[in-house]
Specification:
Length: 372
Amino acid sequence: MKFHRIRYIDFTTVFFYFMKVPMIIFKKIRCIVLKEDYDKFKELLRIINEVRIEVNNYQEKDSQSRTTFKAYYAYNDNYIKIRCRFIKKSNENQYIQFKDSVQAHTGQKCSGIRFYKGYCYFTIYLDFEPLNDFESDNISVSFGTSVYGLKKWDWVEYPHLLCTGETGQGKSVFMRYLLSGLFSANHEVWCIDGKCIDYALVKGMFKYYVANDTADKENIMNLVRCFCEKMHKRYEEMAEKGISSYIEDENYRPVFLLIDEYLTICKQLNKKEKEIFDHDISDIILLGRACGYILIVTMQRADAKYISGDMRDNFMFRAVLGKASKANYKMMFENDVQSFDEKGWAWYMLGTDLGIVRIPYFKTITRSCEKI
């Protein structure tokens, strides 16, 4: 992508649009001929102008009349990428402050920042539609659509998923989409159904299935224990073979344990049972990556009372669905992000990569790429 310099010129918004008249006329004709969305182009210009104004607010000149802040932009139909740099000595907080100002004044959601060759980069997300498709292989599965296309979760590099979201914000839809991808590649998934509803009709697709019921409390703990024991058995086999990762042996396939509505399960355990349960879960989190035994947990909020901070930090893939509170974002990402006003969107963090995806609506779990 070609970056364009945002110049330090203090002029009005009217003059900005006046300078863009040739581009506007060309784009208008193109949209009529090709039946493209002209309103999307107008929104793009508005955002670029808002970014220009924010850049000017951060501009200063030194004693030699040189600007102390440089910014550039590049764009396509789905996003605007910003590259910027403070010439004088700066710190990460200054770049975060600039990114937050851009987010506040444009009204658009922005990615986290990253640094490369002395410049800070972040992305302004435009509206885009989710792809009605999924992909999966022996180390990854798509979990939504980003501005770059299908976004994939590599569980070898980023083991274990923690997914949160308030009631009605799309956790179940997200999981149906994710599981469709896993089942399409014939991956083995074990399930503890926290609400006894979401997966009951498709329980035959799971290797093992237990519904969360007070009477089944022992079965839930036994399922987690069995998963843990099989993981340790594979670990011992790998040690005998002299391999450090399951992907080194083509006969090994990943195995997933889905614990839906983790909070409701923890609440019905007594203190001793909770200690045993936490010990097994911690074992899976610490050892599962190398063996290919991957944990997927969903809950409304990642409260430390039920899932400790140390345990939460070892989920290298975290996602927050739909509209959420600042406290939830803080617990999951340790920084503030702009909440969504509608369902079908999610903030995610893979390692330190923070971004957003759109989730296609799947009414049920499927092994094919057709929308249900």
